[in-house]
Model the fold of this input.
Amino acid sequence: MRKFIFISLLVALSVLLAACGSAATPADTTSSGQANIKLETNPTPAVKGDIELIFTITDASGAPIEGAKVDVNVEHPAMAGMGMSGQATEQGGGKYSIKANFSDSGDWALTIYMRKGELDYKEEFEFPIQ
Done:
């Protein structure tokens, strides 16, 4: 039974993170500090359903950060237990992406954890879904 539940959770997570995507349009979300993370979505604006989240990550001087491990955690604060997480895939040039399925509209909390060498950076975004 535990094995079935574990496999079911893995399948559910895979379905939540799977979506189709193409070119993205920039969003107005950018951070500052030891790293900069610019968030884009495809489609834009972000709507309920399948979405590609695209992160452009640069250092303080604006140079792209490549080869980082980028973990993404998404939660719906208004709905306890509704969330997902996964690792973004490097696309080159400091870009990383992950596909997700947002099953409900409203305000979501998006947390990005980026690690490369000694650089360990966390950024939080408020993420509205229409």
